[in-house]
UniProtKB/TrEMBL annotation:
Main location: membrane
Name recorded for this polypeptide: Glycerol transporter
Topological category with respect to the lipid bilayer: Multi-pass membrane protein
UniProt keywords, alphabetically: Membrane, Transmembrane, Transmembrane helix, Transport
């Protein structure tokens, strides 16, 4: 498979992910929408369905949709990211690039869908919250720990049960993301994906959103570094799991 196809697959899949994921947050958070004040459970299910759709769209490339997943596969020692896509420097950058571009584009389309509601929303935090995550209690080390743990669960389950998100299956990945959200999403909003947070945050900074305020760049590195660390750790531990099981038997 050509790297161009991989790039487009990840762009479209990640764009679908963030369009629907940011969209459910917009529906809950912005003034005057039909889903206003729908609550955190509505958000977690919306993100789960967003993952479900994104994995289907990007199945050809393995549907990583997330640099932490790509890094986890790399650290795990996989020889292919998807059938006929060898793990090397060029393919790794292609996945990272497609994921970030797709996340940015999905967020832009979400803004277009909710343009009037962004204009009507007086709270700058609600506008930023559509695009990117933020902590319930701001504490750099603990926010980082939360993102590491949540992403570790995501990538570890994918590696041990499916090999890739598409190998695990769209419904299984979607339910996994819902489970992480309702269990571990409270402290930070569970970015668990550097592209999902950084791409839309860049969109927030660049788009002409009325009264948007700051993009909170001071926090922005946590939902990037935390998931990358969590994904890398999952790749390492997933290699140890069969050894531990065999030794215990």
């Amino acid at each position: 498979m050509s790297l161009g196809i991989v790039f487009l697959s990840e762009v479209f899949g990640t764009a679908m992910l963030t369009l629907l994921g940011c969209g459910v947050v917009a529906n809950v958070a912005l003034r005057g929408t039909k889903g206003n004040s729908g609550g955190f459970l509505m958000v977690t299910w919306g993100w789960g369905i967003a993952v479900f759709a994104g994995v289907f769209v990007a199945a050809k490339s393995g549907a990583h949709l997330n640099p932490a997943v790509t890094l986890g596969l790399l650290v795990n020692g996989k020889t292919e990211y998807a059938p006929d896509v060898p793990v090397d420097f060029a393919s790794t950058l292609t996945y990272f690039g497609g994921e970030l571009v797709g996340a940015f584009l999905g967020a832009v389309v979400c803004w277009l869908a909710y343009k009037q509601h962004f204009d009507a929303e007086p709270e700058v935090a609600s506008k930023l919250g559509v695009f990117s995550t933020g902590p319930a209690i701001r504490s750099t080390p603990w926010n980082l720990v939360t993102e590491i743990i949540g992403t570790f669960v995501l990538v570890f389950v994918i590696l041990t049960f499916g090999g890739t998100p598409s190998g695990l299956g769209p419904l299984a990945v979607a339910l996994l993301v819902v489970g992480i959200g309702v269990s571990l999403g409270g402290p930070t909003g569970y970015a668990i994906n550097p592209a999902r947070d950084l791409g839309p945050r860049i969109a927030h900074a660049l788009l002409p959103i009325k009264g948007k305020g700051s993009s909170d760049w001071g926090y922005s590195w946590i939902p990037v570094v935390g998931p990358l660390v969590g994904g890398a750790l999952a790749g390492i531990v997933a290699n140890l799991a069969p050894i531990i099981v065999t030794a215990a038997a």
